Amino acid sequence: MPYSFVDMTLYFFIYSFCGWLMETILCSIDEKRFVNRGFLNGPICPIYGCGLLLIFIFLLPVRDNIDNVFVAAVIIYMSSLSMATLVEYLVSWIMEKLFKARWWDYSRYKLNINGRVTLEISLIWGALSTAVIYLVHPRFENLVKKLYSLGDNVPYIIAVVLLSLMAVDLIISTLVALKIGEKIEQLEKLAVLIRGYVESLSLPTREDILKKIESLYELVSKKHEKNVSGEKESPDPELHKLAFEALKSRIASLVQDLKEKRESIMAGTRFLQRRMLKAFPYMKSKGTSLDDWKKHLKSEKGENAEKSKTD
Question: Global pTM?
């Protein structure tokens, strides 16, 4: 490694903060409101810190050992572009598997790979990384050296404090993200049930309705093995005892109950969940439930604003 563990830790936090600052400014301008960008609640985006540490490990030797600056810069640009793209793709894939949603999406760009990375952004990563190595990093090297002038233990203390704070933040944010993923699955399951029940109401016979409902729950069981209580989903056994008109009436009542349950889940969004959803405006899930959730939060915000005006 080009630096000691403590120095690498300090550089990680410096660049994680710089990445958070850049992302927050750009996203706030785009959204026309302040956005606390990033997975963590604190002012850092670790993906920037991790990416630049990898670049320092592999590419600082290129800067220091190749005399031709142009050749070195080209190698650094192409290599950092490739590394940053790989890191971004892997982090996107891992987060989607863990938290049931794609936290950023580049599908709106023409040249993208599965919406996880795009050539336009990758070219920017290469330029930023090259600029950091040649223009920015030497200044941060001097900053870290000055910390040692305050006392040999000062950098160690700062590193330990920052790592401790990040560890706590990481645990909290991971739990929040897992809860968001769980809610997305719940909302999607309820959406499937609501659609299926509504479709069953248009069927001509009692037997067709019951067959539709049975197939509906088979579909739900494949997508969502167990519900929150740990029990497998199954249709109401009382439905088989009802006559045609009573069955349709009961299904209409179930649809209303499921809609209310879905609204209740969206209305029960806590502060940190709201913060995280706002931090990733292009987050996507496989179904439409995440978009519905975001729309609900926006309408809820509008209703609260109107209420405050009238009060």
Answer: 0.85
